[in-house]
From TrEMBL:
The chain crosses the membrane at residues 12-31, 38-57, 63-82, 94-115, 155-176, 208-228, 240-263, 270-288, 294-310. It is a multi-pass membrane protein. Keywords: Cell membrane, Membrane, Transmembrane, Transmembrane helix. InterPro entries: ABC_transp_permease, LivM-like. The keyword Transmembrane applies. This is Branched-chain amino acid ABC transporter permease. The keyword Membrane applies. Its main location: membrane. It comes from Microbacterium aquilitoris.
Amino acid sequence: MDFLQILNNTAAQILSPVTLGFVLAAIGLSVHFGFAGLLNMGVAGFMAIGAYGFAISTLTFGLPWPVAALVGLVGAVLFSIVMGIPTLRLRGDYLAIVTIAAAEVVRLLFLTATFRETTGSADGLVGFQADFRASNLLPPGRYGFGPWTYQSDQWWVIIIGIITIAIVVTLVWLLMRSPWGRVIRGIREDEDAVRSLGKNVFAFKMQALIVGGVIIAAGGIVTALGTNVNPNVYVTSQTFYVWTALLLGGAATIFGPVLGAVLFWVVRAFLSNLLPALSKIGVLPFLTSEQSQMLVFVLVGVALMVLVIFRPQGILGSKKELTFVR
C-alpha cells in the first residue's frame, strides 16, 4: 500500500473544482438555513440549473462564458421565485418538501430524451468549456508543487473558483452585518415578532432564497468547469453532501461552510483511497474493493449522526446561533 500516494491524492482534493463548487453550495445553503431558517432540500436542483444553464448557453447559443454564467445565475433566480411564491408563506417543512421534489423534477427534465439535442439526456453535455479555456491567461504546461500540480486549464478553473469564493464570502459577510441580515436572522428566530414590527416577512424570505440559490448555482457552474455535466450527478445524495459540509463547518457562520466543505471532501477522498487499499492487502478481507467504496458512505453517515448528536453547531458554529425551524 502506497500511503504517500494516498496522502497526495487526498491533498489534491483541497483545490479540486468539486471541492470549490461545494464550498459555494454550502455557503448558499448557509444563507438559506443558517441565517434565514429556510429548509432547502433541493440544493442539487440549484446546482443543476447553474451547470446546465452555463453549458447549454455556450453549446447551443454560442454565448461567451461570462454571459453563459450569468444565464445560469438568472435561472437560479427564476427557480427560487417559482418555488418560493407558493411555499414561503407556509411552515418551513413545506419548503423542504417542495424543494426536494422540484430538484428531482429538474433532474428528470434534463434526463428525458425529449430534449436530448439540448440537454444530452442521460449522456449529459461535454465540450462546453472551450470558450472558458480559450480565455485562460496562464501559460500552457503543467506546474505547481507537491500534490497541487495541475495543467494550465485546471489552474484556470481553480483560480476562477477561488476568486468566486472570495467574492461570495465577502458579500455574505457584508449582508449579515447589514440591517437586511439582522432582519433575516430575526425571521429565523421568530417571524411573527418580525412581522409585528412591520417587516414584510415573505419578501425577506424570498430575497434570502434568491441570494442563497444564486450562490449555490455558482457552485454548480464552478463544478461543471472542471468536469462534464450529467443529470445522474444531481441526485438527492448530492444535496445531503452539501448539508453534511454545512453542518460540519457550522451553519450561520461565514467561514464554517468553507471549512466544512473542504474537510468533507478531504476525508471522503482519504477514505475512498485508503479503504480499497486496505482491502487489497488483506487488512479488510471481508470487503471487496467495490464494497469498501460503499463503506465510505456508511462512515460519512455515521460521522454526520455523531456530529449532530455531540456538536450540532458544527466546528465553527455557536450554540447561540443554533436554531431548529419550527
